[in-house]
Amino acid sequence: MVRSTQVVRVSDSLPLAQSVDDDQDPELVQHKQQAKIVFRKISPSSETRCSIDGGSMTFHYLIHPPPSDPNAVVFLTITDRSYPRKLAFAYLDELSKEFEMSYSRQVHQRNLRPYAFVGFDTFMQRTKRLYADTRTAQTAAGSHLDRLNEDLQDVQKIMTKNMEDLLWRGDSLDHMSSMSSSLRDESLKYRRAARKINVDAMIRKYAPVGALVLLFVFILYIKFR
């Protein structure tokens, strides 16, 4: 079944809407925390549809418009691992169409507060109930699934990832970013030190000559004044 749903703006990971869930379930709470990592990892080159294996639960997300669009929004749902991917993406597709129709003109606003579209939860809950049972969902959403047949008939087209791999890659990228920053700092320190050494070397090299020139000028000044 569908356990939780979140709607987030891709450009800055601003949460726009979220379903009201059972936060007494520690496992679901943990997966919702991991969802925040998924949002942070989305980039302009990310897949528009992706399933991420999170163990007992699975993350499914759909991005619309494409992530390269400044108004892109990601619709993510957490389901039981056994829940069919085709139904999960049919559910997300319905959410994206309704959200675009209701809020597309407001998504780009920079002054939006978190969960600005909290009223969208009403539609999410109603749609969630429709997709709660796989058998009734197959029947109720049959025509809708037919319309999605070209995109979803071959579920292998949907990118599949593993949460552990995503977390590991995130740690690696963060580590590489930290190393890169450290190397830049060290490089800057090296350039400053090299510049100082060069200046000191020039002073040591030309200081005696400069002193002699000044002495010669001073003698001439004393002699001919």
Automatic annotation (TrEMBL):
Residue ranges the record marks as coiled coil: none
Subcellular location: Endoplasmic reticulum membrane; Golgi apparatus membrane
Molecular function as annotated in GO: SNAP receptor activity
Pfam families: Longin (PF13774), Synaptobrevin (PF00957)
Keyword Coiled coil: yes
GO biological process, one term: endoplasmic reticulum to Golgi vesicle-mediated transport
GO CC terms of this entry: endoplasmic reticulum membrane; Golgi membrane
Coarse class of the protein's main subcellular location: endoplasmic reticulum
Residues in Longin domain copies: 6-124
Alphabetized UniProt keyword annotations: Coiled coil, Endoplasmic reticulum, ER-Golgi transport, Golgi apparatus, Membrane, Protein transport, Transmembrane, Transmembrane helix, Transport
The keyword tRNA processing is annotated on this UniProt entry: no
Membrane topology term: Single-pass type IV membrane protein
Residues in V-SNARE coiled-coil homology domain copies: 144-204
Residues passing through the membrane, by range: 206-224
Family assignment from sequence similarity: Belongs to the synaptobrevin family.
Protein name per its UniProtKB record: Protein transport protein SEC22
Record organism: Malassezia pachydermatis
